[in-house]
Write a structure and sequence with these properties.
It contains 14 helices and 14 strands. The chain has about 400 residues and is of the alpha/beta class. The strands form 3 sheets. Strands 3-2-1-4-5 form a 5-stranded parallel β-sheet, sandwiched between helices. Helix 5 links the parallel strand 4 and strand 5. The N and C termini lie far apart (about 80 Å). About 40% of the residues are buried. Bound molecules: arginine (ARG). The site of arginine has 10 residues, from strand 6 and strand 7.
Length: about 400
């Protein structure tokens, strides 16, 4: 009696998820394995992946392009929230997991499967994100994670696969573990495990080395509508095209690399390199537009919400009452966050050099130092007296 009868497996085409297919069938007695490959704009050829799953023993091999949904329903909320985990990581990998979980759960229902499966090991954040998201969407569904239990080394995994006709990787397999989608790349392992070692240039694909960036700056205007990016240089673009183009502009100017040591949910610190050109720039520009259009107290209060939001994405709580509640607050704040931010890209820098909005709260007549000044200077005296009163009383008592 196996752990389940019919399983939908999240499939990437790599050795580990391929080995999961015979493993589930032969070691765990699963009768039928259906694979599901998600196209998240990672740029892989999907037809060979679809075929490889069948060759590895899948009964049905599904491929689903969810890139538009990934951008509009996952990346855009994160931009509205200015979500940066530990102040730096724009959550490009983390955001994809709840979406993959969602289509796994949907496929399980459509095909009458009693379990879903993924190829995550027991050391990372992604297993948590999958398991918790799946539980939130269908608490009855079993989640199988063979790679968390099988205890095989890399060599043993490859050897196991060969027994079932899964070819070992043709090129000497990369020493890195890489996750990629439209929003970015996450790179770890190999020499990067030494936190003192500078990452070799070869790991980067989306961003140029500064030495190879153009001499002249590139200016780009990003237009937001209620917190969502809608146009580049005045041209309305669909969400996927907008991200693609901005990735190219930022990346070719050497913008978008992050090298950090982060705190994983499972307690380990890990050194990770990210490339996330468009996401980093969009959050930077969006935050600037908020400075123009939100009141001081909302801006400052929202900072704490943003941190909580980033943490919940990282920690696998995308489908949660906390997320829904924070969304309600964040969406309310975005009602007037419309306008345009001008960015200068040059030699690894993205600098904001201008911003404008029909909803601007910046009033030149109040801010100016010229004779146009409308600010009542005399009112400041009484304000300061009352504002400073507690300090004054405190100082008097202390003498
Ligand atoms: N540390 C990142 C996260 O937890 C990325 C995880 C996947 N990284 C990788 N190199 N495969 O979101």
């Amino acid at each position: 009696m196996g752990r389940a009868k019919k399983v939908v497996l999240a499939y990437s085409g790599g050795v580990d998820t391929s080995v999961c297919i015979p493993y589930l069938k032969h070691e765990w007695g699963i009768e039928e394995v259906i694979t599901l490959a998600a196209d998240l704009g990672q740029g892989d050829e999907l037809e060979p992946i679809r075929q490889k799953a069948l060759d590895s023993g899948a009964s049905i091999s599904l491929v689903q392009n969810v890139t538009p949904e990934f951008v509009t329903d996952y990346a855009f909320p994160a931009i509205k929230a200015n979500a940066l985990y530990e102040n730096r990581y724009p959550l490009t990998t983390a955001l994809a997991r709840p979406l993959i979980a969602k289509i796994l759960v949907e496929a399980a229902a459509a095909h009458g499967a009693d379990a879903v499966a993924h190829g995550c090991t027991g050391k990372g954040n992604d297993q948590v994100r999958f398991d918790v998201s799946i539980a939130a969407l269908n608490p009855q569904l079993k989640v199988l994670a063979p790679a968390r239990e099988w205890g095989m080394s890399r060599e043993e995994t490859i050897a196991y696969g060969e027994r079932y006709g899964i070819p070992s990787p043709v090129k000497k397999s990369s020493p890195y573990s890489i996750d990629r989608n439209l929003l970015g790349r996450s790179i770890e392992a190999g020499i990067l495990e030494d936190a003192w070692q500078e990452p070799p240039e070869e790991i980067y694909l989306m961003t140029q080395a500064i030495a190879n960036t153009p001499d002249t700056p590139t200016y780009t205007e990003i237009t937001f509508d209620r917190g969502i990016p809608v146009a580049l240089d005045g041209q309305l673009l669909d969400p996927v095209t907008l991200i693609t183009q901005l990735n190219a502009i930022a990346g070719s100017n050497g913008v978008g690399r992050i090298d950090m040591v982060e705190n994983r949910l499972v307690g380990i610190k890990s050194r990770e390199i990210y490339e996330a050109p468009a996401m980093g720039v969009l959050i930077y520009a969006h935050r600037d537009l908020e400075m123009l259009t939100l009141t001081a107290d909302v801006t400052q209060f929202k900072r704490g919400i943003e941190e909580a939001y980033a943490r919940l994405i990282y920690n696998g709580q995308w489908y949660s009452p906390l997320k829904e509640s924070l969304d309600a607050f964040i969406n309310k704040t975005q009602e007037r966050v419309s306008g345009t931010v001008r960015i200068k890209f040059h030699r690894g820098n993205a600098t904001i050099v201008g911003r404008q909005s029909a909803n601007t709260l910046y009033d030149e007549d109040l801010a100016t130092y010229t004779s146009a000044d409308q600010f009542d200077h005399r009112a400041a005296e009484g304000f300061i007296y009352i504002w400073g009163l507690p300090t004054r009383v405190w100082a008097q008592k202390g003498r």
